[in-house]
Amino acid sequence: MIALAEPMGRIAYDEKNSAAFAAGRQLNLDGLAAWRAAVARHLPARAGLRLLDLGAGTGTWSAAFRQWYGAEVLAVEPAAAMRARCAYPVLVAGRAEALPVAAASLDGAWISTVIHHLPDLPAVAAELRRTLRPGAPVLIRSVFAGRGGGISLFRWFPEALRVVESYPSVADICAAFGEAGFAPVALESVPQVTAPSLGAAAVGLRRAAHTPLLLLDDADYDRGVARLRAAADRAPEAPVVDSLDLLVLR
Length: 250
Ligand SMILES: C[S@@+](CC[C@H](N)C(=O)[O-])C[C@H]1O[C@@H](n2cnc3c(N)ncnc32)[C@H](O)[C@@H]1O
Prior knowledge:
Blueprint: H1 15-24, H2 33-42, E1 50-54, H3 60-69, E2 72-76, H4 80-83, E3 91-92, E4 108-112, H5 121-131, E5 138-142, H6 153-156, H7 160-164, H8 170-179, E6 184-195, H9 198-204, H10 211-214, H11 218-234, E7 240-249
Parallel strand pairs: 1-2, 1-4, 2-3, 4-5
Antiparallel strand pairs: 5-7, 6-7
The chain binds S-adenosylmethionine.
């Protein structure tokens, strides 16, 4: 008997895709200074801060929040193959629609590049309303429909933007969370160093690490790889800087 049904969202976080994510999507904390500052604007550090990292994956952000803010972070992740690759120790199996968390026990929820994997946003919003203390923020880091322009990957794989158009928009999320009593308080575009160089990005690219690339057809993918390699040949040392959105609701 399976104790926890793993969600089958847009893609399965099975062994293959989880291994690709762990190899191809790790961010260096040195390149995340703007994210550190952006989150701190909405979640001032204080002793005893208790955060949820929802869909924590390999635990990069859980570890960052513990290091940056001294926060007590609970990482929740449904996929066994991702949990197996997560070095962050406070990790439990669970999914956004049924959180293994007591009512009104959290000071914030962090949801990084997960929201497009959650088909039942009203159920997720209701669970977050139940588990967050009144006034605590939901911090969503993502690319949203209509807002993919800050991501270099889509310069090389422009067809992948079609996949992003099927992701929830900011309006979709605000509507679902509004039903649970949350209101949007901020939407900002936040830069990060995704890779130290284009050369490293070209070598490190893993198709299975990126949902929009997995959902492309093979010919479009192959053309994108050729574009990325050509860009890397022209400027191998150029850093890869991307901007994703931070949407905050309370
Ligand atoms: C692109 S990864 C992001 C991992 C991590 N948050 C990060 O930013 O590095 C998406 C994660 O969402 C998780 N996920 C998918 N469906 C979920 C659900 N229903 N509830 C919680 N997490 C889910 C996947 O298992 C996967 O680990």
